[in-house]
Write a structure and sequence with these properties.
This protein has 244 residues and is mainly α. It has 7 helices and 4 strands; from the N terminus they run ββαββαααααα. Helix 3 packs antiparallel against helix 6, helix 4 packs parallel to helix 6 and helix 5 crosses helix 6.
């Protein structure tokens, strides 16, 4: 995805003093209070009034809790990943499974992911921890493999969830692959991108790496399908998918 860095240019104001400056008044009136920078937005309380500005630590602004980045709740993450994955060829929802249970359930990793049990915890953390990302990665690889395998069984390309716009038999053109990447970004992140967006070549590099990793026949997926599985995992693991 494209990362933009916004530079704040400092405007130097030069005070030009004439040849015969007038003496400063003995009791100057206080200068009006400067407006806060445009990027500082005070929080608004429940009563509709502006709250105190965030505390400044070492020149940096500390955002209020209401504006801090939070990850999805586990129930929401479970539903979102399954929704994006779609259904298998038999019409059943594609789900992350572990020992026969949904991987997000409390019978698997739900509690480890942070779902409250209302005995020792009543609130779910919104922090994207290393453990959370580990389980997101496990779920992503499992779901994307299922998506690819089910797509390979579908003869109607329009019914495929992972590569409906690019054949995986070696005939797909660069334009086909770009179109499929744009489709995937829309499916996973809800973003409509044009072909010139920097996110597309970045994802194409992920696809190429996955496709090139299959060096011999007999693998679980053919090279092109493995490329799309790699792009799928990258899109699931992206902060754009599971962070507010």
């Amino acid at each position: 995805m494209s990362a933009g860095y916004l530079g704040l240019a400092a405007l130097a104001l030069t005070l030009v003093i004439g040849c015969n400056p007038s003496p400063a008044p003995s009791n100057p009136s206080p200068s009006p209070t400067a407006d806060p920078p445009a990027w500082e937005h005070p929080s608004v309380g429940a009563d509709g009034k502006a709250e105190a500005a965030p505390t400044d630590f070492g020149g940096g602004l500390k955002p209020s809790a209401s504006r801090s980045v939070r990850r999805m709740r586990i129930d929401t993450l479970q539903a979102a990943m399954s929704k994006v994955a779609g259904n298998d060829v038999y019409g059943a929802p594609i789900e992350w499974k572990y020992n026969g249970n949904n991987g997000f359930s409390d019978l698997a990793f739900g509690k480890a992911l942070g779902r409250p049990d209302f005995q020792t915890s009543t609130e779910e953390s919104g922090v994207t921890s290393a453990l959370y990302m580990k389980f997101v990665g496990d779920a992503s690889r499992d779901l994307c493999m299922q998506m690819a395998k089910n797509d390979l069984k579908r003869t109607d390309a329009t019914t495929r969830s992972l590569f409906p716009k690019a054949a995986v038999d070696g005939t797909a053109t660069d334009a086909d692959k770009a179109a499929n990447l744009r489709y995937l970004v829309l499916r996973f992140h809800g973003l409509r991108l044009d072909a010139a967006d920097p996110m597309i070549p970045a994802l194409r590099a992920v696809y190429d790496a996955g496709e090139g990793s299959v060096t011999a026949p007999g693998g679980e997926l053919p090279p092109a399908a493995e490329g799309w599985r790699g792009a799928c995992v990258a899109l699931f693991e992206s902060p754009l998918f599971h962070n507010d």
